[in-house]
Amino acid sequence: QYLLFLNSDTELIELSSFRKMLDCFKTKNVGVVGARLLLENNTIQHAGLAFDSKQMNYTHRYYGKDMNDPVVCVNEVVDVITGACFLTSRDLWNKLGGFDKIYSPGYFEDTDYCLRAKELGYSTIYCGEAILYHYQSKSFSGGPTKEHFGRNHEIFKQRWVRTGKIVKYPKIAACYITKDSEEFIAYSIKSIYDMVVKIIVVDNSSKDKTLEILKNIQFNDPQNKITVISRGFANKTEQRNVYCQMLDGMDYAWVVDSDEVWSGEDLRKVEHLVFANPQIPSFCFNFIDFWKDLANVSKGIWETFVGRKSLINLNICGKIKYNIHTLPILESNEEIPSVFAKDIYFH
Question: Which domains are assigned to the chain?
Answer without folding.
Answer: 2-161 (3.90.550.60), 172-346 (3.90.550.10)
